[in-house]
Amino acid sequence: MNPDLSISKIPGIGRYYEYKLRKLNVNTVEDLIYHFPFRYDDFSQIKTIENIQTEEIVSIQGVIWQIKNIRTRSGKFITVATVADQSGTVEVVWFNQPYLTQTLKPGMQISLSGKIQFEGFRAKLISPSYEILRSSTSQIESNLNQVNQDQTLHTGRLVPIYPETEGVSSKWLRGKIAKILPVYLKNTEDFVPKQIIERQNLAGLTNALNYVHFPKSQDEIEKAKKRLAFDELFLIQLASQLRKMNWQKTKTAPKMKVDNEKLAEFIQLLPFQLTGAQKRAIDELLSDLKKDTPANRLLEGDVASGKTVVAAAAVFAVHLNGYSSLVAAPTEILAFQHQQTLAEILSLHGMTVGIWTASKKHKGDVTVGTHALLNNFKPEKPTGLVVVDEQHRFGVTQRGRLFINQTTKFSPHLLTMTATPIPRTLALTLYGDLDLSILDEMPKGRQKIDTFVVPNAKRNKAYKFIEEQVKSSRQAFVITPFVEPSETMTSVKAATIEFEKLKTKFSNRVKLGLLHGKLKSEEKESAIGKFQKGIIDILVATPVVEVGIDIPNATIMMIESAERFGLAQLHQLRGRVGRGRHKSYCFLFTESQSPNSLRRLKSTEKIDVGAELAEIDLKMRGAGEIFGLRQSGFVNLKIADLSDRNLVSEAQNEAKKMLEDNPNLKKYPLLSQKLNKLKSEYIRPN
Ligand code: ADP
Ligand code: MG
Fold first, then answer.
1. Which residue has the CA at smallest separation from atom 18 of ligand 1?
2. If you average pLDDT over residues 534-550, what whole number do you get?
């Protein structure tokens, strides 16, 4: 069977289901085989009727004695059956499925799985899954209580539950997959080389696919998941490593000499001491510059972690080699800011920092600019380094290449900077072709924002504290619950209600302001302006509202229903305070009682590195939940868990090793084929 055969060609599927299956991204036979369960119902406990107990989930097998439909007074149907095995009888009930009496007939041998309930002494099975074992009574006695898992698909075993769509139930999918899988496997060879399978202790592909759909044990599920997850990660890594090789092969970068003495002097003359993380990042970047393959590095660090000086060191090293640099910023304001910061550091060394935006244009040894750089900028000296500051924008990888002339073989080195806390594991997967430096250490003297998870019982104490702070002329933010990713009336309402509530609470002792996205822009500016001037003491705001304003006098960040936020999001919000000289605090209010949820929130009390918090969220909530990745179609993994550091890095190592020995994969045609097929499936930002 051709794995790419259209699913409509399979008997019993046809056009009708083809259309429905498309909604599940199932178009071919192979897609169906790779439509994995997201969980399993454990119906593997098989009992005789005399041994069943209330509330337990069990499977029984027996003969239908009688079955009939009863119509209730409200006109609904209840199907009631009596099923017997050698040890006793049980009553089985289904609701609103009167057609069952057409399939299930007295005398049939049946397998049932579901929850037992007792009514007095009578055991009842309510709405169980069922399947017919034999439609005649002939052989019943011989093996009535002997259950063979291979006989059943929907009962009496670990039963796979799949993503469904209207008209396509898990039961339907199970039936089809059970039929097609053996045929598919007969024509399938393992595309992962043997030595990798052995080294990584992986299940073979045939086993893994059998196990994932029809496991006989929890252990088989684990084995299947590990193997199939490895495949996904391994293929993504191969694809990105190939992209990297390709990029490096087609481009030559200027090989720089690093003048260690001059750089030491440069560092000496900085107005502060570099953090260890900054030193590390500078070293990594400088060793990139020494190569004639173009660097493609991502520098990740929270706001104010000091990324600019890392870039400046590289710009300086490049300058010493007679090349110029470009620094691209997303907005004009940021470009001006960068120009100023860089000038402070670099003019000491006789460098001029140019600017190139819509409104201002002059060139320097290094030129900072916006997208305007793309249009009509011609550097006086060849460009050795391009730095792209993405600030908070997500989708950091490829944009930088825009600033690089695609038509020449010559390419500058590329450094992308981001303040978005992307966990290392996620970055390794999504940006496998980038080298990564993380600034996981804040400059000395930065104040730590004391963070407290506040349960309901301590809420009033927190309000008192806020009032005291206001009395001593400090200010506070109150952020209302995260309701949905985009601002709608629901979040506006939440903010308005909170505003009114606090008004009553503090009466006229405290001046309150309200800020949300549905305000007119004059109203927004007025609210922010008043807060800046200290006319407002407490600003109540929705989470999506851009509070990227610098209010050095604000010392308190209070967040309502904090459990609804991602940790990285909480971290970015609390970064709004602690910008002045006053001690600052963050209160996370929650009514959640869930130990997991509280543990998650409490990690903000101890950890103050965005990337670490994001990593915790990745582990506890999955990639889709953080950064709204799923909505953006950003991560298209079916089975791999991106928080599995080990597997992610093993997959990366194996991919690297593979390509070192076989850069064109000629020896592995199956792998190569698979790779070409899957390339388009994994969406990544551009
Ligand atoms: P970001 O990572 O947000 O781009 P910046 O590079 O703008 O951060 O740095 C924020 C501020 O911290 C700047 O004023 C910078 O001069 C200062 N800074 C950077 N590194 C250090 C350090 N090691 N010690 C003290 N201050 C530093
Ligand atoms: Mg910056």
1. 306
2. 78
